[in-house]
Amino acid sequence: MNCYGERSACWFLAIPLSTRHQIGMDAQKQKSKYSIIVPTYNERLNISLIIYLIFKHFPDVDFEVIVVDDGSPDGTQDIVKQLQQVYGEDRILLRARPRKMGLGTAYIYGMKHASGNFVVIMDADLSHHPKYLPGFLRKQLETGADIVTGTRYVKDGGVHGWNLMRKLTSRGANVLAQTLLWPGVSDLTGSFRLYKKSVLEDIISCCVSKGYVFQMEMIVRASRKGYHIEEVPITFVDRVYGSSKLGGSEIVEYLKGLVYLLITT
């Protein structure tokens, strides 16, 4: 190849393929913006730490955190407003709702305010550690996936802080859903995910669930639509502060949702 007058092209071709691939991923990362939606209800003790950890583990990424608070009576919104003074109102967005209106609708509401071309959904109670965010981003850049989901049920994934009964309940619910729905992913009920925004908008438009079943419906419908889904192993850690919002009514809703998806997908 004649390189006279084409020095930049020859220089690039001389770079090892793996390095060129990394340069391409870095360029794509620089062009992308990530909107991280964090629904809250009574998370005053957790929200400051989760925000700090997001900024710590996402240092060279263009992102915003959208806190969707359902009228927390414990002062969660006051803490978020203080965080806005530290990190900036353009990086921390508070989108308050008057009362508890469901997890699914919280994501829908947050997405309406998202300016990124990628959307991350995660819990505020520290069960989803932000240290996994770079792995989600890297997996998406490497594979071009439409969705990257955290999973507890593959090698290097797991759960910490649950008693045996809760582990059996979670595993049983997941196995039951796997058997009936064949979604092609190992963790149906996880809620730590990265989506292309256009994909999330498409899937949400098809979903009818509003509670904890929402996560399962999202991933099942994404699978049925043929979207490219990748998984990243995570360790789910039970909340340190506050109380779990999962109760008997949510379990009943899960079973009803499972039957609904079996019939409609």
TrEMBL record:
The enzyme's E.C. designation: 2.4.1.83
Catalytic activity, as annotated: a di-trans,poly-cis-dolichyl phosphate + GDP-alpha-D-mannose = a di-trans,poly-cis-dolichyl beta-D-mannosyl phosphate + GDP
This protein's record includes keyword Endoplasmic reticulum: yes
Pathway where this protein functions: Protein modification; protein glycosylation
CDD domains: DPM1_like (cd06442)
GO terms, molecular function: dolichyl-phosphate beta-D-mannosyltransferase activity
Name this polypeptide is given: Dolichol-phosphate mannosyltransferase subunit 1
Source species of the chain: Vicia faba
